[in-house]
């Protein structure tokens, strides 16, 4: 495949896959699996045809037209005519007009996110489903994030998509009174996607751009529900973290931890925006998990003013955070903060109390374990923990940093 065609297709997938999938699914009666199959066939056609015929002027429109034809063919071949098949076909055929016009496609991603949070969908599968269908993560990456096998998560996702079609789950943003239960899952999925992209952005452009896409979704969520402080808190949190991305590696490509980063490399305008968003959320008087996590990042950002990290404040914020979530990441962060604020022994005691059965393959835990053990003078145990963290790390920059910490006197 010629480089220009390949690069264009890769960029189009990164930029528009979820938008095209949402558009197709919305016009296929919520048939998510069918929309995915149709779009996959369109991408395969592009791989074969673009190098020979040239890259189309509007790649998204080309993919939409091919996928649309696949969906219409499926409708025509179906022996069982669903009651809405005619309206679906009319809607899909109207996509030709849109594909040929200069207009952009409606962004249906938030609708797609809400489909994935329907009460008929198992709560445990809502976030994985959103990560795959709306944000493009593969089963292997999702499985790693949820500490399960790729085969198991792939099978569960197939079953969930079949249930969406069988149950006739509507492709729409639900009425406002239904948001309280479902909107939190939408925010969780956006944050999970951001975390995957942000934590792995050194070596993978695609996954690095996922963080940017998650911020765009965060903006959409705020626009949809402007009076929801947790949506604002999430947006602030992502902006704070992403503002520091240029400082996360040094001139040699080595990983730099947050409290050692060169402040001049931070995106200060993005930090200022994050602070304004967090202030707006705080004025609503309804604190929550994302607001507190954003506040923790805000304290780190204050180092650009004070020149130091206020670990005592961060430890106190983590204590507040744990009243909203018992997530492992929050508990590990709490232990690290307490270690800085009150002494390594107290931090180690908190970390050592965590349930080991859930942490065997959790790389951040082993890195934190190595850090705190070393701080308490347990050098050999620290090296063993660092070895485990290094073995679980798939990022060369972070792996190099951990090796340096392991071998340091």
Architecture overview:
The chain has 409 residues and is mainly alpha-helical. Among the domains are: 1-106; 310-409, Alpha Horseshoe (Serine Threonine Protein Phosphatase 5, Tetratricopeptide repeat). 70% of the residues lie in helices and 0% in strands. It contains 20 helices and no strands. It has helices spanning 3-26, 32-53, 59-77, 85-100, 109-115, 123-133, 139-145, 150-167, 179-199, 205-224, 229-243, 268-282, 289-301, 303-306, 311-321, 328-342, 344-352, 363-375, 379-392, 396-407. The longest helix has 24 residues, at 3-26.
Low-confidence stretches: 79-106
Tell me the structural class. mainly alpha
Sheet bearing the most strands, described?
none
**Count of DSSP H/I helices:** 20
Which key terms come to mind for this protein?
409 residues, mainly alpha, Serine Threonine Protein Phosphatase 5, Tetratricopeptide repeat, globular
């Amino acid at each position: 495949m010629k480089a220009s065609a390949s690069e264009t297709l890769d960029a189009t997938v990164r930029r528009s896959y979820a938008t095209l999938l949402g558009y197709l699914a919305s016009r296929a009666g919520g048939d998510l699996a069918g929309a995915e199959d149709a779009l996959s066939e369109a991408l395969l056609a592009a791989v074969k045809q673009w190098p020979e015929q040239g890259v189309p002027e509007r790649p998204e429109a080309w993919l939409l037209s091919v996928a649309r034809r696949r969906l219409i063919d499926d409708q025509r071949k179906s022996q069982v005519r669903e009651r809405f098949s005619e309206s679906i076909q009319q809607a899909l055929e109207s996509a030709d007009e849109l594909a040929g016009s200069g207009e952009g496609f409606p962004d249906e991603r938030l609708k797609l996110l809400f489909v994935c949070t329907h009460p008929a969908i198992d709560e445990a599968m809502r976030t994985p489903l959103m990560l795959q269908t709306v944000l493009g993560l593969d089963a292997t990456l999702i499985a790693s994030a949820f500490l399960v096998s790729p085969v198991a998560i792939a099978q569960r996702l197939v079953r969930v998509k079949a249930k969406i079609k069988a149950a006739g789950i509507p492709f729409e943003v639900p009425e406002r009174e239904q948001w309280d239960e479902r909107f939190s899952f939408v925010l969780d999925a956006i944050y999970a996607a951001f975390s995957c992209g942000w934590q792995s952005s050194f070596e993978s452009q695609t996954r690095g751009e996922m963080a940017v896409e998650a911020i765009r979704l965060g903006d959409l969520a705020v626009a949809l529900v402007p009076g929801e402080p947790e949506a604002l808190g999430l947006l602030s949190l992502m902006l704070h973290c992403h503002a520091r991305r240029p400082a996360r590696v040094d001139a040699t490509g080595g990983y730099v931890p947050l409290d050692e980063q060169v402040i001049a490399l931070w995106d200060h305008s993005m930090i200022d925006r994050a602070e304004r968003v967090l202030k707006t959320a705080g004025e609503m008087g309804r604190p929550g998990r994302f607001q507190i996590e954003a506040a923790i990042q805000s304290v780190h950002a204050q180092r650009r003013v004070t020149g130091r990290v206020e670990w005592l404040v961060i430890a106190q914020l983590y204590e507040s955070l744990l009243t909203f979530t018992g997530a492992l990441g929050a508990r590990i962060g709490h232990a690290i903060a307490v270690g800085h604020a009150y002494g390594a022994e107290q931090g180690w005691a908190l970390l050592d109390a965590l349930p080991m059965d859930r942490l065997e393959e959790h790389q951040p835990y082993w890195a934190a374990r190595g850090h705190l053990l070393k701080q308490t003078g347990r050098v050999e145990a620290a090296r063993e923990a660092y070895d485990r963290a290094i073995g679980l790390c798939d990022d060369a920059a972070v792996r190099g940093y951990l090796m340096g910490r392991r071998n340091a006197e």
